[in-house]
Amino acid sequence: AATAATQWTRSTCVYCGVGCQMDVGSRDGKVVAVRPAEHPVNHGHLCVKGRYAYEYNHAPDRVTTPMLREGDGWRAASWDEALDHTAATLLRIRDQHGADAIGVLGSARATNEENYLAQKFARMVIGTNNVDCCARVCHTPSAKALKTMLGTGAATNAFNDIEQTRCFLLCGCNPTENHPIVGARIKQAVLKGAALIVVDPRRTELAEYAQLHLAVRPGANVLLFNAMAATIIEEGLVDADFVAQRVDGLDEFAAFARAYAPEAVSAQCGVDAADIRAAARLYAGSAPAMCFHGLGMTEHTQGTEGVMTLINLALLTGNLGRAGSGINPLRGQNNVQGSAQMGCEPATLTGSQPIAQARAVFESTWGGALPTTQGLDLMQMLDGAAAGQVKALWAFGYDIYMSMANQHASAQALGQLDCVIVQDLFLNETARAFGTVFFPAASVFERDGTFMNSDRRVQRVRAAVPPPGDARPDWWIIQQLARRMGHAQGFSFDGPQAIWDEVRAVWPAGSGLSYRRLEAESLHWPCPQRDDNAHPGTPVLHGASFAGATRARLAQIPFVATPEQCDPDYPFALVTGRGLYHFNAGTMTYRGANAQLQASDVLDMAAADATRLGLADGMRVRVRSRYGEVELPLRISPRVKPGELFTTFHRPDLHVNQLTSPHRDRLVHTPEYKVTAVRITPA
Length: 683
Ligand code: SF4
Fold this sequence. Notes:
By secondary structure, the protein is an alpha/beta fold. It has three domains: 86-137 and 341-461 and 468-524, 3-Layer(aba) Sandwich (Rossmann fold); 141-329, Dimethylsulfoxide Reductase, domain 2, CATH 3.40.228.10; 572-682, Barwin-like endoglucanases. It contains 24 helices and 28 strands. Strands 5-4-18-17-16-6-7 form a seven-stranded mixed β-sheet, sandwiched between helices. α3 (112-126) runs parallel beside α20, α4 packs across α13 (303-317) and α10 crosses α11 (273-284). The protein starts with 6 loop residues before the first strand and ends with a strand. It binds iron/sulfur cluster. Iron/sulfur cluster is lined by residues 13, 15-16, 18-20, 42, 46-47, 49-50, 179-181. The site of iron/sulfur cluster (SF4) has 14 residues, from α1 and α6. GO terms for molecular function: 4 iron, 4 sulfur cluster binding; formate dehydrogenase (NAD+) activity; metal ion binding; molybdopterin cofactor binding; NADH dehydrogenase activity.
């Protein structure tokens, strides 16, 4: 198919947060091939999703016209009718119930420009801070932990540091499957001599290459990292110079950590004390050491606090502010960093600027007053819907129903809403079950703008083909709705570049990222405007200070067990996650050849458990939690331990999230996808 392309357009992969560059081949207005570009991130490679999973773009069930709910079905509408209807509905709800009865959800599938416009719409057109995005269910804990302790809620280092590190500490992430290009670079670095510690309940592919695999019990991360910190202090492995110059609270922290000696917590962690000590020695003795973490860290009741315990390790050992070190969340979707960074977050404006601090600048730029009420996050919006206080939700590029934990409860909440606006390529599960309005969006191959990948690198996205039918880019749809709601001013941009120039005006750390520069290179923020227009960007944060503060403080995080515990009725701990061939709710990857590579979610179980229960590979089993039940095919897997299970939640007809629990991160409410007590019986 590659030879059939008549045009090639450079763009950015939409899937994971690595942000690989690719050339999109098109012919007669259709995407017919994707090939990797030579670029500092992906070095001429793409993974199986980026390279092959583009067929969804021209899938026969792509929705290309606006639609309005009519009874149990839908009817097609013109843009004028759909927009007028939606504007009138939102205005009526606002008049009757107040602006805070409406919520807006930005999207990791949308560009920075579109997310910026979405939160501006919520705040200026609706008049609410009820704006959030899917970061709430993945890496908001990372952002909160990093911002609290280091002053900036983003990855400290760049992917290009991978080859400079002497030791990787991979925590709750499986880059081989979820960030494959980074996974391959890590593996290459390990084969060339870097040390590798993998902390994961499962024996992931990279664990095979590790000096140490700490198969921590699901939910015990805080115990484990406190124990590593205790070892570092007890065995004199602290970087004394770094701590003296830049870290506060060592003496108090040392007293706190004593209770977490490896021998004291080993049984609860499920990891040998000797291995915890060996990991602490290896990490502390191999500077620069670089930590990557994923949702296995964040999607817990102590998700934010777990990341804080990782930051403690970096502070104790001086692994911050230098190439090859740092604390680096691996973001699951390409622009999840950008959606929150652009202000799709209830308490902060663009650039993660707290509303109270940045209010004057935004009010002057936007020409109006910002709302003063405290916004609801995504989870609180669902709670508000269930309680009858939130009446309308606008979600783009986000299948909430399919991907939200504790699905029966989210269904009950979504079912209470008067108005659910879904903006997507397909009638996703949220639209099917609860949508009242459907706006057909342009895909990543059909729009211009920028993405921001996991390591703060901002890159261009370019339209390779026109949108089909009446599909339109998100920014166009938001503007049209704003104008019908009386806000032509502030929503009359002629395209993404003009929107981005306004972003640069309100976000000092991004002011140097002009389209002119991004045309030629991708840059890491902070990249402030300079007179010579040549700030080089900042691949490594915290070189001399922590976001303006000279010192950071160690965090004392007591371990608090999740309420989701196994018992004789629910004896297995189920971990959910993603696999190599599919992406989140499967909306894109199940509409192409990747569907044949993995046709179904499967339940991974250790051979010893299967034998004990009389189960065989390939059998269908019933998985029951305290919250719901699904049937899955069983796969005997050497990657999971006895007593633990793993599955993905990609297939829309299986709804694996019926199983997951209502428990949430104690600080930012991220659902606990990573621990669910279940029992297994033959189907
Ligand atoms: Fe796309 Fe991530 Fe694969 Fe790169 S590693 S091609 S960004 S899915």
